[in-house]
């Protein structure tokens, strides 16, 4: 549990953290009664280096055994989970703040990509809330070449909190529950700052090796309270390494209510910046734990209410990516599913959209021996 708690929280002051992104004792220890993926604990930085070496050997093995091979990694093995919890909370608060602003500008019912904030009104609102003076916020938008069109969408908004700008250190955002401004990020100690940098360095080493060896690196999805950070860090790797082809693959869990929004926003970013979008689509592996945790701790269940809704979400996300492949040939998808209907749906849509298997834009992933009646006919 200590590895999920920041120094600032140990001194007291973790109370204003969001419930979902705090470490909770009952859910920290998962050695017994676990029927889904087992959780290993952060021991120290040396252990993370060992995990990185293991991943490097996996990449080498994949490269030696097949052309265009895949290797999968888990980010929680590469650093202290506390950083992922904190960073996830920052990203979620920041996005929620954008939605609040959009609602105030009368755009509540729109899809996430249709929401465009008028820069003038946004700057006024930030000044009225006491978050930033007009001069300060003007500097953000001009400094990042944003708001040229006079509007700011979610992608512009997200880029403000990029590693290039140290905004998260300075920024206060409103907490609706308590009606007060709170800092986005609790202060990091020097050691915590280093742990964060080391995690990013390990990711970098793995991405470079994968690119050298021609192996596609899939970053696994994990629990919803780690996932915003994992996705964001993977996106940063995609921006750097997917210039010519898809080397880095992000994973989207379609049992999450926000899956479609996440897919569409990231595809749009890849279009704007001109890199290759790589994704693995899964239904999701942590449902029971996620639901139990949300119910016990008291935050909204992040999972779709029914299996049918998850199926619908999977096919909706998949169809969106297949359409993108048809239009730009710059997207790649791994359909990671043991569901016969999903596999048939994919094959039908590939034929309708003129996507040939030889293009290697669509791959399928199944666990060895789990659904041979699907895997073998598919292989043929």
TrEMBL record:
GO BP annotation list: L-proline catabolic process to L-glutamate
Region Disordered, annotated ranges: 1-24
Keywords carried by this UniProt record: FAD, Flavoprotein, Oxidoreductase, Proline metabolism
Sequence ranges assigned to domain Proline dehydrogenase in this UniProt record: 134-378
Top EC class for this record: oxidoreductase
GO cellular component, one term: mitochondrion
Keyword Oxidoreductase applies: yes
GO molecular function: FAD binding; proline dehydrogenase activity
Gene3D superfamilies the UniProt entry points to: 3.20.20.220
Entry-linked SUPFAM superfamilies: FAD-linked oxidoreductase
EC identifiers of the protein: 1.5.5.2
Keyword Zinc belongs to the record: no
Pathway: Amino-acid degradation; L-proline degradation into L-glutamate; L-glutamate from L-proline: step 1/2
Pfam families: Pro_dh
Ranges annotated as biased composition (Basic and acidic residues): 15-24
Family: Belongs to the proline oxidase family.
Function: Converts proline to delta-1-pyrroline-5-carboxylate.
Protein name per Swiss-Prot or TrEMBL: Proline dehydrogenase
